Amino acid sequence: MFQLQQLRLAPFAVSAICGLLLASSAGAAPRLNVEESVTLAAKPAMVWKMIGDYNALAAWHPVVAKTEITKGKNNTRGAVRSVETKDGAKLIEELLAYDSKKNSMRYRIVESPLPVRDYVSTLSVQASGQGSRVVWTSSFDAVHEGGVDDAKAKDIVAGIYKAGFNGLRAKLGEK
Asked: To 10 degrees, what angle do helices 44-51 and 150-172 make?
C-alpha cells in the first residue's frame, strides 16, 4: 500500500520540485561564457611544457609579474596560487583539475578584483595539423559595479586571454 501511495504522489512531487527550480532560477542572469583560442606552429608537448605549469603563469603571460603556490602541491588538484599582476592586482586561484596526458587544467578564481564571480576556466592544448591549438574557456557571472555590464565583463576576460596568447607567441618566437 505504501508503494502505491508513493507512486500516486510522485508526479505531484516532481511537478512541485520543477516549479521550485524554475521559480528560483527565473530571476537569475544566465552565466557568461568566453572562449578564445590560438593556433601555433609549435608542437602540443612544447606548448604544454610552457603553459602547463600551474605556477609559471608569469613565464608566458605578459600581464603577470609573479605567481606563488600558497597551498598544496603545484599541478595537483586543490593547489592554490597567488597571482600578482604587473600593475599590482592580486588574484587567488584554485586548481580544480589537472591532466598532463590531455594537456588540460581547470581552475577557479577564489578572490579577484575582476568584475566576475563564480569564475571557472579551462586552459588546454590540442594538436592542430603540424602544430597546436590552445583553447582558453571560462564560465562566470558578471559583477555589475562601476558601469560594468555583461558585455564589458566578457571583453575584460577575453582581453586577458588574448594578451596571454600574444605573450605565448612571443615566448615561442612566433608572430
From this structure: 120
